[in-house]
Amino acid sequence: MPHERSHIVSSFEQELEQLRAMMVKIGRIVEEQVGLALRAISDHDESAAEEATRLDPEVDELEREVESLVIRLLALRSPMGADLREIVAALKITGDLERIGDYAASIARKAIKAASGDGQISLSGLRSMGRLVKENLGRTVDAVIAHDANQAMEVWHADRGVDEHYVTVFRELVTYMIEDARNIRACTELLFIAKNLERIGDHATNVAERVYYAVTGENLPTTRPRGGSPTRSLGQGEDMD
Question: Which DSSP helix (H) or strand (E) runs through 51?
């Protein structure tokens, strides 16, 4: 009987390690997708845009595999305490990461359409926002890997900076449209891109909250630090594709 119990514990730990490895894989893929999407914006790189989109089905498949493993663990292992929190968090984290991949693919598709041939539209604000979003996402994935509540808290606080960048970019692009109607098409695409970057930041913050709860058993405050919103028409929670 002790030998059988030891075997069950060993199998459970192996399955947990498998779950963690799958989470790391998804996290690194979506990091790559976001990096490719940003390159598509900065360099009008069509191959980077295509690669970001090509990776999307791989993330979708991994999400399904995580879901199946989580259901198996819950049904057969009856986890408790910290193990239960980690397993349930994994399911939610994977959903957020999958959405980040979707937004990255959407950004990549729009980046080529938004190319401003005459170079009159500055992308410096959008690039700065993209760098911050990518940096926060990287720290989020690192927090998932290390089960680091402190790093998760840092990402949670950093979301304010993403919001502030979004407000600045929004105002800049609206100004370009007001000054010259020929900018409207490109700026509209760039507004969608900026909103998608802001949503990636939100989902990264969601992941940070899940990590914090899984590690500590405590929830972060319901109200997040916010940097303001430029308009209700592009309000929080709206998906833009």
Answer: helix 46-54
- For residue 222, CA distances in Å to 83, 87, 115, 166, 226 come to 24, 22, 39, 21, 12
What is the rounded CA–CA span in Å between residue 136 and residue 134? 5
Distance, in Å, from the CA atom of 148 to the CA atom of 211, rounded to the nearest integer, reads 7
184-240, pLDDT tens digit by residue? Answer: 998 999 999 999 999 999 999 999 999 999 999 999 887 777 766 665 444 444 454
Tell me how far apart the alpha carbons of residues 29 and 56 are, in angstroms, rounded to a whole number: 9
Distance CA 39, CA 48 (A): 7
- The model carries a pTM of 0.88
Encode pLDDT of 14-41 as tens digits.
Answer: 999 999 999 999 999 999 999 999 999 9
- From the CA atom positions of the chain, what is the Rg in Å? 20
d(CA 178, CA 25): 44
